[in-house]
Design brief:
Helix content is 28%, strand content 15%. The chain is an alpha/beta fold and 272 residues long. It has a domain at 5-86 and 166-269. It has an eight-stranded mixed beta sheet, covered by helices on one side. β2, α2 (66-75) and β3 form a beta-alpha-beta unit. It is globular, with a radius of gyration of 18 Å. The chain binds iron/sulfur cluster (SF4) (2 copies). One iron/sulfur cluster (SF4) binds at residues 14, 16-18, 21, 25-26, 59-61, 87, 109.
Length: 272
């Protein structure tokens, strides 16, 4: 299976410091930052792989790296669609912030953990401005329970679609919030229906990976699941083979662990 969408994490720098952040991003973080040679490599890999239809920028807060976004614009083939997940902090600088860029879709992340930094009303204003700029916009909401539905009211009233996602047990969330309570029902990187791995993440200084959680950010075996070769040949990686194996699925179905904890434990016993 080849990737249809490449998620590029630009850095772990963020102007928020949410308690549940899956890769522990924040204002002082400097553990990983994309370099110019990496930008050139990602563009050249995508340009050489016609199956990739979308690039999706993430972080940290990707809009803190305007110069890098412009470099992608200069080097990437024109028929790739552009998406970004952002906390929406750039709202007051719209529309000039996007001059010279070409975003087709923006997912504004929000949930109870973002509340110390931004309100649902402020984010709704930003979403409406993006819509006026003909950018497709939705709210990416990390859902924990029914009380969260109240927080989505402002978006729904304004006709902004809300996409729910689950907590990923990784980074600050696993250490400070989760503390052993299982919330996950499925791998966030792996659609349960198709078991297809069509989404690939690029982690600065590390490489490509199928995992958007602990194998990418926390595991002592993360190097086994990173790939630095050409994107179009990535279907041969050990992580792809393990995650799509019948044995992985059968063992998970008999496990009482959440999927990420099961996955890390299972793969740490698999041959390297
Ligand atoms: S969850 Fe998003 S907005 Fe919050 S610290 Fe992490 S990257 Fe920043
Ligand atoms: S640790 Fe495994 S189950 Fe969790 S996101 Fe990564 S690949 Fe998916």
């Amino acid at each position: 299976m080849k990737a249809k969408e490449v998620y590029v994490l630009l850095s772990d720098l963020c102007n928020f410091k949410c308690e549940h952040c899956l890769n522990s991003s924040g204002p002082q973080s400097q553990r990983w930052r994309l370099s110019e040679p990496e930008i050139q490599k990602i563009c050249s890999d995508i340009n050489a792989d016609p199956q990739v239809q979308q690039i999706h920028f993430s972080g940290g807060e990707p809009s803190l790296h305007l110069d890098w976004l412009k470099l992608f614009k200069k080097n990437l083939r024109e028929d790739v669609t552009w998406a970004m997940t952002s906390n929406g902090w750039f709202g007051s600088r719209l529309p000039s912030f996007f001059e010279g860029l070409r975003f087709d879709k923006i997912s504004l992340s929000f949930d109870s953990y973002h509340l110390p930094y931004i309100s649902a009303e402020k984010l709704t204003e930003t979403a409406l401005k993006l819509k006026d700029m003909k950018i497709e916009v939705d709210i990416l909401f990390t859902f924990e329970g029914p009380k969260d539905l109240l927080l989505t009211k402002a978006f729904k009233d304004a006709g902004i679609p809300v996409q729910f996602c689950q907590i990923v047990e990784s980074g600050r969330h696993d250490k400070e919030v989760h503390q052993g309570k299982s919330l996950q029902t499925g791998c966030p990187s792996l659609p349960q229906e198709s078991r297809a791995l069509e989404k690939i993440n690029y982690i600065p200084g590390k490489g490509y990976t199928y995992c958007c959680g602990p194998l990418a950010f926390d595991s002592h075996r993360e190097d086994s699941f990173l790939y630095t070769g050409e994107l179009k040949n990535m279907g041969e990686t050990p992580l792809y083979k393990e995650l799509t194996s019948e044995a992985f699925l059968a063992n998970y179905q008999n496990s009482d662990q959440s999927i990420c904890h099961f996955c890390v434990n299972y793969l740490s016993k698999a041959p390297q």
